[in-house]
Amino acid sequence: MQSTLNDSGPNELWRQIAPILEEAMNHRSEKERALLALRFFDNKTAAETAALLGIREGAAHKRAARALSKLRRFFFQTRH
What we know:
Radius of gyration: 14 Å
Number of helices: 5
Helix content: over 70%
Order of helices and strands: HHHHH
């Protein structure tokens, strides 16, 4: 895996990862997908994300942490 990362440019790496990320996101709830998309694809702050979703900033932090943990588990299971 590391040699693939070293040999691949950003576009090639994204081409390889995108389908797996899409599958992982499809396993998340609509609320989790919306939160992750705002935070990490739209580069919104936790405060901006919270305001857009109508939740408190602390809740946005906790939900993001849980959703990221679920994504990590998905990627770990996919590798093994």
